[in-house]
Design brief:
The protein has 353 residues and is of the alpha/beta class. Helices cover 34% and strands 18% of the residues. The N terminus is likely disordered. The chain binds zinc ion. Zinc ion binds next to loops.
Length: 353
């Protein structure tokens, strides 16, 4: 796929040469403060970054929820091997973000990719970031992952960690959303048009770590407010099906029932979404993609090792690369994004009996 990368670079150079990037950031007028305020003054406004159109392929990377306590996650048993294969640690993710920034990538909105209206700061390349299974399942909590996403008193989205028995709740930034939020705040050119990424959620163990069945009005209200905060700060919310079903082999009736269950649970709390992330990357059986499109999922995402955006009947199919322990085993594929050798944390990944 080197040819595709070469094409991207060529298009990037063309965009730079076209000179659309020559605009200077507008000067911020000094605004006198007539009255001293008792509330903390906001940070000085960041000048908007001039953006240029991008017409090449758009890369997408996806992650699962991050491993926060490697000693609990990477044990020498089936689940431990699964974490090692399908996850990265918070430390590794921090290194990946830094590398993506230094290598010229900028986060863009998945809807702009589908619409062909992607824009990036001049000289940079677009990237869609996504996180699957933002549900904080019971099995993962026991292995040191967060219990849920919460909004702190300052309005920032944080991860809530607890001890394995559910006691001692405390806030942490060791999770994908707070890490990306902080990185974009520190590096405005890492985000175009305010985009952060895509969060894909199942429903069978609730949403964002809040358990919703049987109904829990307080938990539902927390989800509703959190979803609004996330949307307002550049995150797109997506279905990952209700039951993490196998779209590549489940019958149409099962897909239809699962879709109805996801919408009944999630839409009143998350708001409508037109994005569906296939569980396991499994491409739907005949008729299922159309069924999902008719249910409103006009953007459907699978897994591949190349960037694809294909118009289909009633929907757009896009591919994402997986970033995890298995992907680390093939460093060449990730080379445009980061150096696996510099990112991988072998000490954290040594499986403990
Ligand atoms: Zn999944």
């Amino acid at each position: 796929m080197r040819s595709r990368v070469a094409t991207s670079v060529a298009l990037l150079c063309a965009a730079v040469l076209l000179g659309a990037c020559q605009a200077e950031p507008p000067v911020q007028p000094a605004v006198p403060r007539a009255v001293a305020s008792t509330t903390p003054s906001p940070s000085p406004p960041v000048p908007p970054v001039p953006l240029v159109a991008w017409h090449g392929p758009v890369e997408q990377l996806f992650f699962h929820t991050l491993v926060v306590r490697p000693g609990l996650a990477f044990t020498d048993d089936t689940l431990g091997h699964s974490f090692a294969d399908y996850s990265v640690t918070a430390t590794e993710f921090r290194r990946i973000l830094t590398s993506l920034w230094h290598r010229g990538w900028t986060l863009v909105d998945v809807h702009r990719v589908a619409a062909g209206t992607v824009r990036v700061p001049a000289g940079r390349r677009p990237l869609v970031l996504s996180e699957d299974d933002v549900n904080y399942y019971d099995y993962a909590r026991e292995r040191g992952q967060p219990w849920r996403l919460v909004t702190d008193s300052a309005g920032r989205v944080r991860a809530e960690l607890r001890d394995a028995d559910g006691t001692h709740p405390r806030l942490s930034d060791d999770d994908l959303v707070p890490l990306v939020d902080a990185f974009v705040a520190a590096h405005p050119e890492f985000s175009a048009d305010g985009a952060k990424g895509l969060l894909a959620l199942t429903g069978y163990e609730g949403l964002f770590g809040e358990r919703l069945e049987p109904p829990d009005p307080a938990a539902a209200d927390r989800v509703r407010r959190l979803a609004q905060t996330l949307r307002d700060s550049g995150w797109t919310l997506a279905s990952h099906t209700y039951g993490h079903i196998h779209l590549e082999r489940d019958r149409l009736a099962i897909v239809a029932r699962d879709t109805a269950r996801w919408r009944a649970l999630a839409e009143p709390l998350l708001g409508p979404t037109d994005v569906l992330v296939y569980p396991y990357g499994g491409r739907p059986v005949a008729g299922a993609a159309a069924l999902l499109a008719s249910a409103g999922f006009h953007l459907q995402l699978d897994i591949d090792i190349v960037p694809r955006t294909e118009r289909r009947q009633g929907y757009t199919l896009m591919s994402r690369r997986h970033v995890d322990g298995l992907a680390f085993d093939v460093p060449a594929r990730l080379a445009p994004f980061f150096d696996v050798q510099a990112v991988r944390d072998p000490a954290a990944r040594s499986l403990e009996a």
